[in-house]
């Protein structure tokens, strides 16, 4: 039996790229072999040794998902795992060097953060962002407002269970803030060579049963960028340069407050409230190859967000736990743009989104290490959009339209979890109904039903080895439609056609993970695959100045990848962590004609860090030297993209009194391919991006 288990990695590698969809039965077979081997060993032990009393949860005890595995000693950069979640402990050097939560997330394995704050997980968008377990209304603003030093851990759930999985939810990222204790305050302020000023704080106060954390942030931005492009002019048959110079200035302010009230050992209430406002002014000069085509643009935009999220937890004895959650969030955007040069134009856009939801969850122990969960949720999303007015040079054109409507979602789920010997099994099923009502005709509606089964299986042959298998499937189909029968609905929940007779939309996701230790170093192997199929959509067809719609094949999208990670300590002073990911994607898209096109992309990324730490006898770090880097490369339809980065930092700290600690840090960052933050709290920092002029930032921290 062990011989067959030793061949498991070869079987996995052979199926991964030759026949990727046949991979998962092989992985099921690997777990079956492991179970048979465990059963055989247990039988032999029973025959040669007297019975030994088992140690485990007693009847009536509730065993949480995060408590199913033995406790782990967490080092900096280490990853803890439960059935569906990876917990990444943020290294101390990264907390001191990172300016915001966005920069912290960009270094977490499996996570990518774009310049505009869009977060992807294992190459896929639609990620839910949370702070201390509570949803936030505006991920981009929160990531920029939160200080990197305020973050303790980042929980990543790439394949959510039935309790969390819904719609286009590609995963969950939960930012856990540091518990600084009542009476602690931190103020950070800085400026860089571009004139951008930032100030933020972290205040913790309140009684033991009512801790309150306040996170204010203010940014005044001044920037100038010059871009030189090469443009091909077909009418001239030559390539010329295009130069653009832009200035962006603005002010943004936000306030986040986390309140946790513990009324008793059985009842507690936690609330996360956020409020923010941003005003930007932009001006740009674009010099085209032909001087007459030069133009100047200027405009401003305003953005406001507010959210309130509360969770009430009630324990009924030691058997059952209820959680009642409520969310209310509002996002408003207003902007206009004025251009003059070759033409005069003005663009005005107003967007508003309001989300309200309420849910109730229950976790009940049914004895023998088994647990049964169930829950209900109702969510309403109101979208309002008004656009646009346009004035051209020679002709005057005006259009003002109001779009929007209400999305109403009703969901119910049940989930069963059991621990049998060295296996931990979680089975779940979620049903969801999504109803869309147009704002200009409330009687018009469309209804979609969905089912989401999930399976998470963990096998731990020893304290140092573990296997995990995760499978989820999502299926949506239209069940009713009062709108135009040939109308396509496409939003952040789903994409389908109004005709209720069409086939359903399906999506499934699978992950297999093996974790072990080699020479006291932790090694992790992860294989993942995601597949989405939309059988039909409607595409416009332009014939004789008449727009018609027809049914065509939609995109069938698949992603397959593999990840290898390693972390550990070289000695008492040096520790390291690295992660590598390779993935490839392909899709089949029906275009405006009968011919369909195929596209594909592949991506490779490697990230690692090395940390040296020396502490005094009291455990206070007095020297902390770190090096970290990340290299990403990929191709999208033949277009090669490379983004390497490298950073080095040195931190010094000394404890003066019981309440005062002095610190100083120096760090540098060299990045190619994408912009990054140029500000770092508590550091003098040098940043250079591509061939742009370097920036130098200085910031100071004061802790009370």
Describe the model.
InterPro entries: Beta-barrel_TonB_sf (IPR036942), OMP_b-brl_3 (IPR041700). This is TonB-dependent receptor. It comes from Qipengyuania pelagi. It is a single chain. With 704 residues, the protein is mainly beta. It folds into two domains: 49 residues; 641 residues, Maltoporin, Chain A. It contains six helices and 35 strands. It has a 23-stranded mixed beta barrel. α2 packs antiparallel against α3. The longest helix is centred in the N-terminal third of the chain and has 26 residues. It is globular. The chain starts with a helix and ends with a strand. The N terminus is likely disordered.
CATH topology of the largest domain: Maltoporin, Chain A
CATH architecture annotation name of the largest domain: Beta Barrel
The portion of residues forming beta strands comes to over 45%
Q: Which class of the largest domain in CATH terms?
A: Mainly Beta
Q: Give the low-pLDDT segments.
A: 1-21, 42-82, 391-401, 482-502, 537-553, 589-597, 670-682
Radius of gyration, CA atoms, in whole angstroms: 27 Å
According to DSSP, the number of beta strands is 35
Helix/strand/pairing category: mainly beta
Query: What's the mean pLDDT score?
Result: 68
- Looking at CATH, the homologous superfamily of the largest domain is TonB-dependent receptor, beta-barrel domain
The share of residues in helices is: under 10%
Shape: globular
Distance between the termini: 61 Å
Protein name: TonB-dependent receptor
Pfam families: OMP_b-brl_3
Main location: membrane
Domain Outer membrane protein beta-barrel: 351-691
């Amino acid at each position: 039996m062990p011989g067959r288990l030793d061949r498991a990695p070869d079987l996995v590698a052979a199926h991964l790229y030759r026949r990727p969809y046949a991979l998962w039965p092989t992985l099921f077979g690997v777990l079956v072999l492991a179970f048979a081997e465990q059963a055989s060993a247990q039988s032999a032990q029973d025959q040669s040794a007297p019975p030994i009393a088992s140690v485990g949860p007693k009847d009536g005890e509730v065993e949480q998902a995060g408590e199913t595995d033995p406790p782990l000693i967490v080092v900096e950069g280490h990853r803890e795992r439960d059935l569906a979640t990876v917990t990444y402990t943020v290294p101390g050097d990264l907390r001191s060097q990172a300016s915001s939560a966005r920069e912290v997330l960009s270094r977490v394995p499996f996570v990518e953060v774009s310049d505009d704050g869009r977060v992807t997980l294992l190459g896929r968008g639609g990620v839910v962002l949370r702070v201390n377990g509570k949803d936030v209304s505006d991920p981009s603003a929160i990531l920029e407002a939160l200080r990197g030093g305020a973050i303790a851990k980042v929980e990543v759930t790439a394949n959510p269970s039935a309790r969390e999985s819904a719609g286009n939810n590609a995963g969950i990222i939960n930012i856990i803030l540091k518990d600084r204790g009542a009476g602690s305050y931190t103020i950070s302020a800085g400026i860089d060579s571009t004139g951008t000023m930032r100030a933020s704080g972290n205040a913790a106060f309140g009684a033991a049963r009512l801790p309150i954390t306040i996170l204010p942030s203010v940014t005044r931005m001044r920037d100038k960028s010059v871009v030189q492009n090469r443009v091909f002019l077909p009418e001239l048959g030559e390539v010329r340069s295009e130069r653009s110079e832009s200035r962006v200035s603005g002010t943004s302010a936000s306030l986040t407050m986390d309140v946790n009230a513990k009324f008793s050992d059985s009842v507690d209430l936690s609330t996360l409230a956020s409020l923010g406002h941003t005003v930007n002014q932009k001006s740009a000069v674009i010099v085209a190859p032909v001087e007459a085509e030069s133009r100047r643009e200027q405009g401003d935009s305003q953005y406001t967000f507010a959210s309130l999220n509360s969770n009430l937890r009630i324990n009924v004895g030691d058997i059952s736990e209820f959680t009642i959650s409520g969310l209310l969030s509002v996002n408003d955007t207003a902007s206009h743009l004025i251009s003059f040069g070759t033409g005069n134009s003005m663009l005005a856009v107003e967007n508003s989104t309001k989300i309200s939801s309420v849910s109730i969850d229950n976790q009940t122990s049914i004895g023998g290490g088994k647990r049964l969960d169930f829950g209900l949720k109702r969510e309403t999303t109101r979208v309002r959009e008004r656009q646009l007015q346009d004035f051209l040079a020679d002709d005057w054109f005006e259009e003002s339209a109001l779009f929007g409507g209400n999305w109403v979602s009703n969901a119910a789920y049940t989930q069963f979890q059991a621990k049998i010997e060295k296996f931990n099994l979680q089975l779940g099923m979620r049903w969801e109904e999504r109803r869309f009502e147009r704002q200009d005709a409330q009687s018009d509606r469309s209804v979609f039903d969905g089912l989401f089964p999930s399976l998470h299986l963990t096998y731990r042959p020893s304290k140092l080895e573990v296997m995990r298998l995760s499978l989820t499937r999502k299926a949506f189909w239209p069940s009713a439609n009062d709108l135009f029968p040939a109308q396509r609905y496409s939003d952040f929940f789903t994409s389908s056609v109004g005709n209720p007779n069409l086939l359903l939309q399906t999506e499934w996701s699978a992950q297999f993970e093996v974790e072990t230790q080699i020479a006291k170093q932790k090694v992790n192997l992860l294989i993942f695959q995601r597949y989405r199929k939309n059988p039909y959509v409607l595409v416009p067809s332009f014939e004789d100045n008449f727009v018609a719609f027809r049914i065509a094949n939609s995109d069938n999208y698949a992603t397959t990848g593999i990840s290898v990670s390693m972390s550990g300590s070289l000695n008492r002073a040096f520790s390291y962590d690295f992660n590598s990911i390779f993935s490839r994607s392909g899709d089949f898209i029906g275009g405006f004609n009968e011919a369909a096109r195929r596209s594909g992309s592949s991506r490779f990324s490697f990230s690692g860090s090395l940390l040296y730490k020396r502490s005094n006898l009291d455990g206070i770090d007095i020297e902390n030297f770190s090096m970290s880097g990340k290299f990403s490369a990929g191709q999208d339809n033949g277009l090669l993209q490379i983004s390497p980065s490298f950073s080095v930092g040195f931190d010094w700290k000394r404890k003066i009194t019981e309440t005062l600690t002095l610190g100083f840090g120096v760090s540098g960052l060299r990045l190619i391919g994408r912009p990054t933050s140029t500000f770092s709290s508590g550091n003098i920092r040098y940043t250079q991006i591509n061939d742009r002029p370097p920036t130098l930032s200085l910031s100071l921290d004061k802790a009370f």
